[in-house]
Amino acid sequence: MKQEEIEKVYLIKKLPADLNKCKKMIIRDGNFFDPNTVDSLRIRQKGNQYELTKKDGKSAQQRTEHTINIKKEEFEIFWPVASWKYEKERYLYSLDNLTAEIDIYLGNLKGYARVEVEFATEQESEKFNRPDWFGLEITDWNHTIHSDIDNISFQVMQKRYQEKGIELIAIN
Description:
It contains 4 helices and 9 strands, in the order E-E-E-E-E-H-E-E-E-H-E-H-H. The chain is an alpha+beta fold. The chain starts with a strand and ends in a 9-residue tail after the last helix.
């Protein structure tokens, strides 16, 4: 499946009070090359669904995703050879006609959370009014700040944000 991706990524000030009503899944991502570049190759487990995704594009905000479903056995073959691996909880939160994907990272990044919203058009993206619980938009440098995401701690992530003049507060 080929899909255009127009998205914005934000930090989270606080989790929405009704988050427990949202669909939740555990996601395991494994990347074969630096996932923080515009072009990337990734395997992913979302609950009981497994996929291989190639991303390419013009910018961090606008990329094309080529995704194919794979079997669990295929995922298990690829997982050990992936270079970058991490896990997160994802909540699908309804924002009227849009869906916010709230990612709460696990393991060494426990406390780190962000939210992304995908749009059908550039115009829809430009007109988006974020809810109060959204923090600073990080779309343009999301990929650079996530360098080595599988090998860093929450404290290292805090330092990276601090270097940009942003206080990163743990979300629990």
